[in-house]
Write a structure and sequence with these properties.
Blueprint lengths: L1 E3 L3 E3 L9 E10 L2 E9 L2 E2 L1 E9 L4 E7 L10 E9 L7 E3 L1 H5 L2 E6 L2 E6 L5 H22 L5
Parallel strand pairs: 1-3, 2-4, 3-6, 4-7, 6-8, 7-9
Antiparallel strand pairs: 4-5, 8-11, 10-11
């Protein structure tokens, strides 16, 4: 069995590069930070464990988009950690920049998933609001009583 000290850091491919870290021995983790790097939709870090036991109460995922968020397609989900023996989503958190950018975490069985939903640009919101207003005006004019 392998145990990492409190506040240890883990990464799949090293700092600022992607890859997979696979451990075939049982691992126990106390509080730690997972530096998760992504270069594109299909080029990202993965921590793959045979048996992972969590013994702390604070786990942080720091998301680092190596090529910027523009390299990601709309609405995507990645398995970023597999092999969890017990899971409590309340123990996991994202760094603030990732949360603000539209990332969320989800537990699915023994896997920790990272989900991304693209947040529309302000100009996109302006176009949507303009379209809704235009439709409302047209509908109002269509059903308005005739003027005499």
């Amino acid at each position: 069995n392998l145990t990492l000290a409190q506040n240890a850091g883990l990464t799949g491919g090293g700092v600022l590069s992607t890859g997979t870290l696979t451990l075939t021995q049982a691992l126990t983790l106390s509080d730690f930070t997972y530096q998760w790097d992504i270069a594109a939709d299909d080029d990202y870090d993965l921590l793959n464990f045979t048996s992972l036991t969590l013994s702390g109460d604070n786990y942080t995922v720091n998301v680092n988009a190596l090529n910027g968020l523009g390299a990601l397609s709309d609405d995507k989900s990645w398995t970023i950690l597999s092999g969890l023996q017990t899971g409590n989503l309340g123990l996991w958190s994202l760094n603030q920049e990732a949360a603000d950018a539209g990332f969320t975490l989800n537990l699915q069985g023994a896997n920790l998933l990272l989900n991304y939903s693209a947040i529309p640009e302000p100009s996109t919101w302006a176009l949507i609001v303009t379209g809704v207003v235009l439709l409302a005006v047209l509908r109002f004019r269509r059903f308005a009583p005739p003027r005499h």
